[in-house]
Design a protein that fits this description.
Length: about 25
C-alpha cells in the first residue's frame, strides 16, 4: 500500500517535470 502510494507520487512528479520541460521548450 505504501509502495503503491510512493509509486503514484513518483509518477505524478515525473509527469509534472515533463510538463514543465515541455512548457519551457514551448517558449
Amino acid at each position: 500500500m505504501i509502495s503503491n502510494y510512493l509509486g503514484k507520487q513518483h509518477r505524478e512528479f515525473l509527469g509534472y517535470r515533463c510538463l514543465l520541460q515541455c512548457s519551457l521548450q514551448s517558449h
